[in-house]
Automatic annotation (TrEMBL):
GO terms for cellular component: extracellular region. It comes from Sula dactylatra (Masked booby). It holds the Pfam family PA. The gene is Pradc1. InterPro entries: PA_dom_sf, PA_domain, PRADC1-like_PA. This is Protease-associated domain-containing protein 1.
Amino acid sequence: ALAAAGAAMLRRSLWLCLCLCSCPARGLRIHEYLYFQVLSPGDIRYIFTATPAKDFGGVFNTRYDQIHLVPADPPEACGELNNGVFIQDQIALVERGGCSFLSKTRVIQEHGGRAVIIADNAYDNDSFYIEMIQDSTRRTADIPALFLLGRDGYMIRRSLEQHGLPWAVISIPVNITSIPTYEMMQPPWTFW
């Protein structure tokens, strides 16, 4: 287990180094990480890592210091949402599966969401990022779409269920270069 964790940490460090060394400083590029912090509930007050979609969706032009992260109902967000009114002007947490990443992004956009975070449906995935790509339908989406590890998405949803909360409060994006390493609150189940 330690060897696998070390290998995952090494892969992530090498990948981040490659991105930082080969990409211009202007905005996020393919395979770069974007960070967000859960502010509430307190038991998951960590900084999470996500990756932007490869070839669709918008970028974060605004930093949100406090915005709701609302789990979609149904979780896969492949059609009409039961809680669409709560997604309006917020960020949706969606689960992978059932339809394309682009279809999910469009559903959230149609409900007025400012962005979508799509968590892997493999709840034990704590190190492998999926490259979210266009689904060849020639449709577009304007809001940012991010991929989140399955373990992270599961832990966020589980915490909300345990507390009986309809959403988390997050800050996104978070500039981790301005945070001293000893102050970074990383999820204990994920190796950075």
